[in-house]
Structure formats: C-alpha cells, structure tokens
C-alpha cells in the first residue's frame, strides 16, 4: 500500500507547507466562480432566459422542457427554472464520484484537476451566450466533478501520516471555500444585475481562470502523484452482521438528510426570488441611496459561517467538559430543526409582506442566521458520523454515498421549489418548515433508538 508523502522540502507559511497556500487560493477562486454563477442562475432564468421570446434560442431547450414536463406536467417559467436549478445543483454533487475514479485509475489528480478547471472556465464563458446555456451547464457539471474531489484530497497529501497539522489545514482550506462564496455574489451578482447578465457570468469565468493559473504556477509546491490504483483480486473478509447494521443505519440516515438538503438549498432558488420580489432592499444613507442588489444577500451565509463557527466549537467544548455535549445524531437533528425554525421565521415575513407589500430585511437576516446554525450542526457532524460507524474498508465508498445526499436533496429541492409561484408564500414556507421538521423528528427518534440499543448491548456485555 502506498504511503502519503509530502513534496520536496519547501518554505513553510505560517507553520504549514507552502502548497496549502496554493490550494487555498485555487479553491477560493474556483468557489468564487461557482457561487458567482449560482447567485445569478435562478434570477437569470426567471427574469430573462426562460421568457417565451428568449427560450427558443437555447439549443436543446425544447427537448429538456419536454422531458421535465413528461415527469412533472406543464411547467410555467418559475417552476421550470426551479427544476433546472435543482437538476444542475444535484448533478454537481453526483459527478465528483466519477471524477475521483478517473483520477485514481487513469489520469492522476493533477491532470484531472487541470481538465476540470478548463471545462469550468469554458462553461462560465459560454454562459455569456444564451444559445449555449445548456451546453455551458453540462461543461460546468463535468468540470466540477473532475476538480472538486481531487483538490480536496491533495490537501491531505501535503502532510505525512499522523501529522497533527492536517485537521487545522482542512479548517484553513474551508475558510478559502467560504471566502470565495462570500465575495462571489458581491462581484458577479452586482455585475449581472446592474450591468448585464453576461458580465456576471464572464466575471465567474475570469475567477476560474485565476484559479487555474494559481494551480499551474504553484505546481512545484503540491504533493507528488501517488501510484495509480490497479485492480487487485486480494480476498476480503466477509462483512460481519455488525458491518451490515452500520451500513443499514447510514442508508436510513441518508434518507433523512436528503430532506435537510432539499430545504436548505432553497436559499439559492426560491429565497433569491423572495429577496428580489418581496424584501425591502432600499437604503437611505447620507452618502448613498438606492437598492441593495438581490444577490448580495447570498453572501450572508458564508459570512455567518466565519462568525459562528468559533462560538459553536467553544459551546461544544464547554458542553463536553460537563458531559452534556449532544451526540452526533442529536446535533444532526438540531441541524434539521434549525432549517425548520428558519422557515417559520419566513412565514412571519410573508405575513408582513402580505400587509405592506415588502418585508423587512431583518426577517431575512434572522432566517439566514438560524439556517447557518443548522448547517454547522449537521454538515460537518454528518461526515464525522460516517467515519465513526462505517466498516474500515468501506469508509471511502460510504463517504461518497453520504455526499450523494446532496444530489438527491437538490433534486427534491428543485421539485419543492417548483410550487413557489402557485402557492401562497406563507404556505410555501410552512411546507418547507414541515419537511425539515419531519426530518429533525425522524433523526431524533433514530438517535433515541440508538441509545436504547447501545444500552441493551452494554447490559449484555456486562
């Protein structure tokens, strides 16, 4: 079995290999491009591309519309946009499974990352030409699949096995992801809304080119390629009954977590439409008057991740000292509950908008704050849960299966979002809260059953 090694000795930066700075910058600009395009996608489709006078110019659109309507019935502009948004964001989380396999078996990580970056840059620039809208999405889906899993795994390759800096390195890397996500709506969103849609998409393409340039220029600081995996026929011990129970638990939990992502991901879809049409975005300051761009609100979630993470970690540490830290499953139930509560806040916002026409932006701040807390309770702890209970030789595969909940969740989220234009807005948010609340209750019940099972096993063993 191959052993992870670091690159040739190089000067450390703040106690970490210089390669981490290269990967940080690459990932920051790649996420800038992804979230910059995503911030505009729903608004672009609803307000321009999918209008009857424009949609016929999109190559292949009639075929896609026919396929979606054969499954879901006739679709108006907004439901159709929601289905396309859900399908795109879902496939973005499916293709990394293929991208990781291609890198491991045939091309290696570096070549696969470069190909993925080039495909994404081409896709972003093609978004500037509405005729090639669907082809652009296809290139972005393929490019992300090649890029995303391999650059993340290269972070670990910078450190020797057992190096305690690795966990901190991934935390630093995660900052790069959220920094790019924070800046993207401010830059790409402003250009897209105020100058022209294609300028926003072009800015996303420029961001991807910067990411690719950083990666290529800093290649000498990156970890060397490991030998490509070959097919082996070494016999494996059969899975035990306990292994199968663990796999069954994960499979059941994946179903519940799918509903979390379906409700959480509304922020880039229907919430963008809420901000655009139902939120008072006017600002009247001494030095500036006007409306805050719709897309700027999508910067709040990554900003709050920066702000809240230290406090959440400190809270768990304090609870751990007192023996009161929630179990991993309980944290995940709290995460789903957070999304439910966030949408109940929006029920109140919709009630205000029904009276005044526009709701205060403070409702949206509260929604995003509670949603972000829910994310921090579920997303990282879910990865921890998989690593704890998955059979040792199946950890990587089951981690991939776990990440596919983003795929199924976004598909479901696109379908739920298609009801936006046909439902009273308070009822819509109540529906989303109900879905997230049901998932929370199911995970909490699951956690209580696990406690009972573990208690019985302890009694038998003693």
In short:
This protein has helices spanning 18-49, 52-55, 61-72, 77-107, 109-126, 133-157, 165-194, 197-217, 241-264, 270-278, 300-321, 328-356, 361-389, 395-403, 405-417, 425-461, and strands at 282-284, 289-291. With 462 residues, the chain is an all-alpha fold. The protein has two domains: 17-227, MFS general substrate transporter like domains (Growth Hormone, Chain: A, Up-down Bundle); 240-456, MFS general substrate transporter like domains (Growth Hormone, Chain: A, Up-down Bundle), CATH 1.20.1250.20.
Give short descriptive properties of this protein.
Growth Hormone, Chain: A; 75% helix; single chain; 1% strand; mainly alpha; 462 residues; two-stranded antiparallel sheet; disordered N terminus; 2 domains
């Amino acid at each position: 079995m191959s052993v992870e090694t670091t690159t040739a000795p190089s000067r450390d930066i703040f106690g970490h290999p210089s390669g981490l700075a290269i990967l940080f910058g690459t990932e920051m600009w790649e996420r800038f491009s992804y979230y910059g395009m995503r911030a505009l996608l729903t608004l672009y489709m609803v307000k321009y591309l999918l209008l009857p006078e424009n949609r016929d110019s999109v190559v292949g659109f009639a075929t896609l519309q026919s396929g979606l309507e054969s499954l879901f019935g006739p679709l108006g502009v907004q439901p159709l946009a929601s289905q396309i948004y859900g399908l795109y964001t879902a496939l973005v989380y499916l293709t990394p499974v293929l991208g990781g396999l291609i890198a491991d078996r045939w091309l290696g990580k570096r070549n696969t990352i470069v190909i993925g970056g080039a495909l994404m840059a081409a896709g972003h620039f093609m978004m500037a030409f509405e005729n090639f809208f669907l082809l652009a999405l296809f290139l972005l889906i393929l490019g992300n699949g090649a890029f995303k899993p391999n650059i993340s795994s290269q972070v670990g390759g910078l450190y020797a096995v057992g190096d305690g800096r690795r966990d901190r390195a991934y935390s630093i890397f995660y900052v790069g992801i959220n920094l790019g996500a924070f800046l993207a709506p401010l830059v790409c969103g402003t250009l897209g809304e105020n100058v022209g849609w294609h300028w926003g998409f072009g800015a996303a393409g420029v961001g991807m080119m910067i990411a690719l340039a950083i990666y290529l220029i800093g290649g000498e600081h990156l970890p060397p390629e490991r030998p490509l995996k070959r097919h082996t026929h070494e016999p494996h011990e059969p899975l035990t009954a306990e292994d199968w129970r663990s796999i069954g638990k994960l499979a059941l939990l994946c179903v519940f977590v799918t509903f979390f992502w379906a409700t959480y991901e509304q922020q880039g879809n229907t919430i963008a439409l809420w901000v655009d049409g139902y939120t008072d975005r006017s600002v009247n300051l001494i030095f500036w008057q006007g409306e805050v761009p719709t897309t700027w609100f999508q910067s709040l979630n990554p900003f709050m991740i920066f702000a809240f993470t230290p406090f959440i970690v400190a809270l768990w540490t304090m609870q751990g000292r007192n023996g009161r830290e929630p179990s991993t499953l309980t944290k995940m139930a709290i995460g789903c509950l957070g999304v439910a509560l966030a949408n109940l806040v929006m029920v109140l916002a919709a009630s205000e908008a029904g009276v005044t026409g526009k709701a205060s932006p403070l409702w949206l701040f509260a929604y995003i704050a509670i949603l972000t807390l829910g994310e921090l309770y579920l997303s990282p702890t879910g990865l921890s849960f998989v690593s704890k209970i998955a059979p040792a030789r199946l950890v990587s595969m089951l981690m991939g299966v776990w990440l596919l909940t983003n795929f199924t969740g976004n598909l479901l989220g696109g379908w739920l979002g298609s009801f936006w234009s046909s439902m009273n807005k308070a009822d819509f948010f109540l529906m989303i809260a109900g879905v997230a609340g049901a998932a929370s209750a199911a995970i909490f019940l699951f956690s209580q059953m696990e406690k009972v099972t573990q208690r019985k096993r302890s009694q038998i063993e003693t």
